[in-house]
Specification:
Distance between the termini: 54 Å
Strand content: under 5%
Helix content: over 70%
Number of strands: 0
Radius of gyration: 24 Å
Shape: elongated
């Protein structure tokens, strides 16, 4: 097999294995010792909490806007020429996939922010599981986007080749 083929198999497998291992760790729910935090830590948690909510809102706005744009583009193409529908639908799907990947990055940022200030071991394990799961989703989404773009460029090249051969066959000798 090619080196790329092995990496395409090993990366998702490693991510899934890491997720399973993180989820299988059983962190004892020992009594939480309440440690008095200093005022600056409390204030920092408050600021980071708002930043995390801001990142989640940004993810929702980005993804929601892309969904609305995708629906509008699809409705516009629904009433267009039938030849352009497949390429247009594929284009909409690829655009939505790119934005979903961006939205996943915002949600990962939100989770990292929530765990940034005085995390417990359980918080770190939860963050690891969430980041691994979202990274796995992002990996497959990016892979799908690249495959779609590759198929799209191949279909465009074949259309160009067909149109140039049709034009050369239409040319009549003088």
């Amino acid at each position: 097999m090619k080196r790329e083929s092995w990496s395409e198999l090993l990366i998702p497998f490693a991510l899934i294995l890491g997720l399973v291992l993180l989820l299988s760790l059983n962190v004892e729910t020992a009594r939480e010792v309440t440690v008095e935090s200093n005022p600056s830590e409390t204030w920092l948690k408050w600021i980071v909490g708002y930043l995390a909510v801001g990142a989640e809102i940004a993810a929702a706005i980005v993804i929601g806007g892309a969904v609305i744009r995708g629906i509008l583009d699809y409705l516009r193409q629904l009433f267009s020429h039938p030849q352009q529908r497949f390429d247009g639908t594929e284009s909409i799907r690829l655009q939505l996939g790119r934005v979903l990947a961006l939205g996943l990055e915002f949600t990962i940022a939100s989770d990292i922010l929530r765990t940034a200030v005085a995390p417990t071991r359980q918080d770190i394990l939860n963050l690891g599981a969430i980041v691994l799961l979202r990274t796995l989703l992002n990996y497959f989404l990016e892979r799908e986007i690249h495959q779609g773009e590759r198929n799209r460029s191949i279909s465009r090249a074949s259309l160009r080749a067909n149109s140039s051969s049709e034009q050369s066959s239409r040319v009549t000798p003088p």
